[in-house]
Amino acid sequence: ELKVEQNPLFLSMQEGKNYTIYCNYSTTSDRLYWYRQDPGKSLESLFVLLSNGAVKQEGRLMASLDTKARLSTLHITAAVHDLSATYFCAVDRYQAGTALIFGKGTTLSVSS
Amino acid sequence: DAGVIQSPRHEVTEMGQEVTLRCKLISGHNSLFWYRQTMMRGLELLIYFNNNVPIDDSGMPEDRFSAKMPNASFSTLKIQPSEPRDSAVYFCASSLQGQTGELFFGEGSRLTVL
Question: What whole-number distance in Å separates Cα of residue A99 and Cα of residue A68?
Answer without folding.
Answer: 21
